[in-house]
Write a structure and sequence with these properties.
8 helices, ABC transporter ATP-binding protein, iron, membrane, alpha+beta, OB fold (Dihydrolipoamide Acetyltransferase, E2P), Rossmann fold, cell membrane, ATP binding, binds adenosine-5'-triphosphate
Length: 364
């Protein structure tokens, strides 16, 4: 197989149960060399189990695991974790407290001479900006520094694949952003194929070339962050990436009416009960007589402001519909920067239809 086509990591129809609980249900996922892929999903959906099966920390029950084109688990074969060429980083940095930083990073290096080992340790610590702390002990470092050392330790043997499980979740919010930024650049510069588990959609969008969103042991949708955000396959995916306005409607000639005008429902039968999901940033607000581009909008609606709040980089406006006053739900619009209309002010709203999604209503 040509170099570029090489699949660095393949999980092939992997299933895994604990007692009667099916934690991973027929999961297949391939990572190309150098790709950063995030396994994303709510608590308990099976992300960690899938990662542990890939690492060999859970014995494979069903399916196959292939690393750099070599089957490492499946069909009676089970190569132990230390022989799989994987680097592991978990949320608790798990450094050895009695070893120095350099000692920790050197720990997993095998088959190298003393000077080669030293050079590799220096290189790995340099990558994460910790070269000057080589002689320090873990307790002398901050959480963020310890996590960088853990990353260096995992990278030092130059593994085929890095497996990261919630690696930033023990860090406070500011430090988390800094360390994940550094981690992304280290992984990309070193060209390391990475599978990372997270429950945080923003973190996944920050880190991932591709996201595999899981629910109840299965991958619901896999693709670029933009694909999942703009072309969600169902309401679960659409609503996983942040708050979303949800309306109910009925399809009439392939359209659903909303307080902001009709929305396309191509392919849905007449009378189908649907949910319309609208992202807050899809509601564009303007003064009553004027639309965003200066003309009276053909599609759109009249709304009244219930409350306005500055949220930092965006403003959040709570709205009620004047066109459909019996509509019980109120709506949230998110506008970039500072936009704080007065309570009870009337506005026009235009809908960006590329961020309005129609799905059959789930009946159960
Ligand atoms: N060692 C175990 N023994 C029994 N059940 C387990 C074990 N590990 C995981 N499970 C169960 O398997 C399911 C998937 O767990 P897993 O930890 O893989 O999910 P997750 O998506 O990583 O969740 P979280 O983010 O909360 O860790 C859950 O129902 C969990 O309770």
């Amino acid at each position: 197989m040509a170099g570029n086509d090489m699949q660095a990591l393949v999980l092939d129809h992997v299933s895994h149960s604990f007692g009667g609980v099916l934690a991973v249900d027929d999961l297949s996922l391939s990572l190309s060399k150098g790709e950063v892929v995030c396994l994303l999903g709510p608590s308990g959906c099976g992300k960690t189990t899938a990662l542990r099966v890939a690492a060999g920390l859970e014995a494979l029950q069903q399916g196959r695991v292939i690393i750099a084109n070599e089957p490492v688990a499946g069909a009676g074969r089970e190569i132990p974790p230390e022989d799989r060429s994987v680097g592991l980083v978990f949320q608790d940095y798990a450094l050895f407290p009695h070893l120095t930083v350099a000692g920790n990073v050197a720990f997993g290096l095998r088959g190298l001479s003393g000077s080669e080992k030293q050079a590799r340790v220096q290189e790995a610590l340099g990558r994460v900006g910790m070269a000057e702390s080589a002689a320090a002990y873990p307790h002398m470092l901050s959480g963020g520094q310890q996590q960088r050392v853990a990353l260096a330790r995992a990278l030092a043997p130059q593994p085929q694949v890095m497996l990261l499980d919630e690696p930033f979740s023990n860090l406070d919010a500011r430090l988390r952003q800094k360390v994940r930024d550094e981690t992304l650049h280290v992984l990309k510069e070193s060209g390391t194929t990475t599978l990372m588990v997270t429950h945080d959609p923003e973190e996944a969008m920050f880190m991932a070339d591709r996201i595999a969103l899981m629910r109840a042991g299965r991958i619901v949708q896999e693709g670029t962050p933009a694909a999942l955000y703009y072309q969600p396959v169902d309401a679960f995916v659409a609503s996983f990436f942040g708050e979303i306005n949800q309306l109910e409607g009925v399809v009439v000639t392939e359209q659903v009416s909303t307080p902001f005008g009709p929305v396309d429902a191509k392919g849905f039968a007449d009378g189908a009960a649907v949910a319309v999901l609208i992202r807050p940033e899809a509601l564009h607000l303007s003064p009553p007589e004027q639309s965003a581009n200066g003309s009276i909008p053909v599609n759109g609606g009249a709304v009244e402001v219930m409350a306005s709040r500055l949220m930092g980089r965006t403003s959040l406006i709570h709205l009620r519909s004047l066109d459909v006053p019996e509509q019980e739900t109120h709506f949230h619009a998110r506008v970039p920067g500072r936009f704080l209309p007065m309570e009870n002010q009337r506005l026009r709203v235009e809908l960006d239809r590329s961020q309005a999604f129609v799905f059959l209503r789930e009946t159960d």
